[in-house]
Amino acid sequence: MSFREPLYVGPVHSEPIHVVQLTSDDVLAQAEALPFWSQEYTQLDKGEFSGAVTSVSCHGVQLFRETMNRAVDEIASAPANSYVVGLPTIIEGTASWGLQPLSRDSLITLDKNTELMFRTSHLSEITATVIAADRLEAYAEKVERVDLSKLMSKVKPVETIKPELADRLCNILIGGAQHIMDINSSEQALKIWRHLEDDLLDAVMQSLMQVSENPIRNNEHRIHRHIVNRVRELTLMNQDQMLSIGDLCRALNISRRTLNHAFTRVLGITPVAYIRNVRLQRIREELQSSAFQVTTIADVAAKWGFWHMSLFSRYYRELFGECPNETLQRSRTINI
Known about the structure:
- InterPro entries: AraC_XylS_family_regulators, Homeodomain-like_sf, HTH_AraC.
- By secondary structure, the protein is of the alpha+beta class.
- It has 2 domains: 200 residues, Jelly Rolls (Sandwich), CATH 2.60.120.10; 115 residues, Arc Repressor Mutant, subunit A (Orthogonal Bundle), CATH 1.10.10.60.
- It has 12 helices and 12 strands.
- The chain has a 7-stranded antiparallel β-sheet. A 5-stranded antiparallel β-sheet has the order 2-5-10-7-8.
- The chain starts with 17 loop residues before the first strand and ends with a helix.
């Protein structure tokens, strides 16, 4: 996955504040909703999807909040040459960020130009900031006398953070963004933004310096995530045939137990269910993006290894909360 263009960094007075508030009832639309990011989402939970994104950005800094009501496996790239620091503000169920298990008392980070693997919980919300690397590195050097690259090498994607630091960062991320959106005057909003940036950069650096002193944890989750990623790659490489558990074990040179354990730990579902969801997701994407090129739904389903149409329709309806023909008809209506 390629990285998006970096966040624009210019004189504060010359750049307007960019605000986005969106809601979505489709996981594919949700993947496109966050400005400046490149993302692929695979829905894991069954049922109708609902999500929301709020983003406020200016002068190389983005504050965003994303909420979803279904577990999703995300592969994402942040804006180029940017750091990501944030908090999981809602977690209900198993979740992981950057190959590490996620809990409510966590600080989440993403080093610059690093691909993100994020498995959300059944109901999730993350609140985070994206900061252009040159801005945060300059602040770290001039104000904290810290080499940010060396500091980040000590910080895992998920670290336990002190409650008082988490509360301060959360208040800045959520309260600051909301305050900016509530101001009607763009001139006044820019003045507030400059003060907000100072508080944000300080809170981010204090958080990073605190968690960099945490004990080092083991790497087991990283191995399990690698197995999941390889299964995804094999699924997409063999789109017209359903790979069996035996096929996967032979291809990866692992046991059935290891395969099942990896998926249980990382995604909370079986490898069979995951493969099916990946294929259903690709079918839904084709029904939406190429609605007028679709001759029959059966042809699209067969291309992704589904030959039993009644069973395919049941799986599709269970995952997305609607029948495949409803998706196709709505897409054709929207694109007229």
